[in-house]
Each structure stands twice: as structure tokens, then as C-alpha cells.
Design a protein that fits this description.
Blueprint (H helix, E strand, L loop, with lengths): L1 H14 L4 H16 L4 H11 L6 H14 L3 H12 L6 H16 L2 H18 L4 H12 L9 H10 L3 H7 L1 H22 L9 H26 L5 H19 L4 H34 L2 H10 L5 H18 L2 H18 L4 H13 L9 H10 L3 H8 L3 H13 L2 H11 L2
Length: about 425
Amino acid sequence: MTVAIILLLLIVLLLTGMPLAFAMGVTTTVYLYVTGIDAGMLAQRMTASIDSFLILAIPFFYLAGELMNACRLTERIINMSRALVGHIHGGLAQVNIFASMIFSGMSGSATADTTALGSVLIPAMKKEGYPAPFSAAVTVASALVGPMIPPSVALVIYGTLANVSIGRLLIAGVIPGVVIIASQMIFTYFIARKRGYPRYERASLREVGKSISQGGPALLFPVIIVGGILLGVFSPTEAAAVAVLYGLVLGLLYRHMNLKQLGKVLVDVGLGSCRILLIVAASAAFSWVMVRENVPQSIGDAISTISSEPLIVLGIILIVLILVGLFMVASSAEIVLTPILVPVVMQFGIDPVHFGVLMVFTLIIGGATPPVGILMFIAQDIAKISHAQMVRAMIPFYIPLFAAVVLLAVFPQITLFLPNFIFGS
């Protein structure tokens, strides 16, 4: 009964428009008052959750991504993608998808990917004869790879909350990210052939080499992060700091950044990091309440009445996550649900690294689905189409997206191969 009241209070507060961090803080405070526990427990749990060297990776990765965006590498990435995959059926649509994979290695954000690449590629695709809704849908679907390939703030947050190795998580996202992109490129290939969309002539080796040399700095960004972690040169947090230094160096070399722009980036990152860390801190206190009331155990017991088969359990949880993603922003849902669901999946022998990658991707799909679907609103605004047109154009792209979810769920070694090979199982 206590848990039901607490959860109902949280839902009511969120429906009134109260920010998530404050809603969880108020809910936890009410619980402490009702149960007679010292209110100082709230402050203790909040401060302990963010008093960590590992959690410094969040603002550092956030800052590194913003610095790379400020370096204006978008055009270089697009030119390189065009030389590599522009000759495949679908031409510029394939470039859009492939460029998202490279850009995700800079920003780690689906929103940044949609905004930066969409603002350039959606008008370009329309100019080449692609329907505006299709152009927007390709941009949104491919941008979902953003949080999968390092650097990924979403995976860092998950690792912090779930007490899972951040290094393993960052490495684990690489192959799934490639699988997600490959599924979309294959799907787009068949659509393009059926609809007769244009493609470019195959680039010469010289053109490919030139485009790679120009876009090389973007490729080096995730290589520095992943390579440094793999070689044991630095920890994930130190990798994030090195990534910031790399972004600053590029900004100076390309002369795309001045002190005013740097100041704006620092302020934006500072405010954004504070919002994220405040939610993480409040979530730690709220999750303590849930654990104290045996909520994870109760969820596990309820699921076990249906099945104790790990794959079926994982399928049930993923369906719940998809439904949650329809109505809740992915980052907020991740922070609230991670401390609750990780103990549940571990009860059934599901690897928390595998689950983390699946959870992040499944929730981020919510950014491409109504009614929340923030990525859809960004793309439709760029493409100048209605929301109804955007939704209709997205429907076919759910096929490769959910196919990727099923593939990653059924074959966990796709996710676990690299971290197990490098760090040991």
C-alpha cells in the first residue's frame, strides 16, 4: 500500500508539470516522513550517488560532444559518407544513415545528430527529389544510433546507476551501433530500388582518400576514446577529459571557435550537466525507497509467475520499456527505471551490460514515436511537414528498428563479444 501511494504521488506530481528531480525528491521526503526515517537520509543518498570519480565522465563527454559540434565537422562527415556509400541505391539517404554513425561518435546524442545532420541533409534530399517526409524519417531513424557508439552519456548514466563497468558498456555499444545502422541501410536499399530514388556514381580511390583525410578528425574522436580504454591508457573518465582536450585542439586548428563561443558552450554544458546530475541524485534517493520496499523483488516474482526463461523475461521488460518510451523522455525513464530493473534482470541471469545497451536503445526509440517523439518534431520542423506526415513516414522505419532490438535481444553475444574479448567474461 505504501509503495502504491508513493508511486501515485510521483505520477500526480509529474502530471502537474513538476520537474522529475523535484518530483522524486518530494516523493522521497513524504516517504521518509510517513515511515519516521530521519529526513537527512535524503541528502545522504543524493550526495553519495554523485560523489564519484566515474560520474565526472558525464559532464566531460557532454562537453566533448559540444566542442566537436562547434568545430563544424558536419560537412566533412557528409562528404566522406558520400564518397564511401553514396553509390548504393538510395544515394543521399544512405549517406544520411552512414553519417549518423560517424556523427554519433562525436556527439553521443540522438538530438544533436538529428539537428546537425538534418539541417543539412533534409533540404539537400528534398532538392534531389526525395519526398520531404521520407527525408525526415531517414534522419530520425538513423539518429537513434547516437547514444550507442562512444561517447555515450546514456550508457555512462546507466553504468553509474547500475554499478556496472562503464568501460565495458562503452565498448559493448559499438557492434550493436553498427548492426542498427546496417539494418537501416539494407532496408533503405530495398525502398530506394522500389521507388527509383537516385544514387551517385562510385567515387574513385583518390576521392575516397581525400574525403577520409578531411573527415579523419571526426573518425579519430571515438577511436581515441575506445582505443585509450582498450589499451589501458586511461579510464572512461580520463578518456572523456582527453576527448575534451581533443575538441579544444580541433577548435583552435580550424579556427571555428572563439572565447565567446567557448563561454557559451561551457555555460550550456554546465547547466545541462547540473540538470542531469540533479536527476541522478534524486533518483538514487527514490530508488533506495523502492529497494527498501522490495519493489524489484516483487517485480521479479510477478514476472516469474509468467516465465522464468531469461529471453521471455527480457522480452516482457523490453515491451514495457517501449511503452514507457512512448510517454516519457528516454533520459528520465532510464534514470528512474535502471535501479529498479537491473536487480530484476540479474535475478534471471541476464547480463547487466547486455541489458544496459538494450535498455538505452529501446528507450531512445521513444524519441521517434508519438506522442512525445522529440526527434520527430525537430525533423518535421526542418522538413516543413505536418506531424501526421512525419508519423506516416516513420511507420516503415520501425521495421528495421525493432528488428535490431529483437536481434540484439536474441543474440546477446552481439553486444557482449567485444567487452568479453577485451576485458574477459
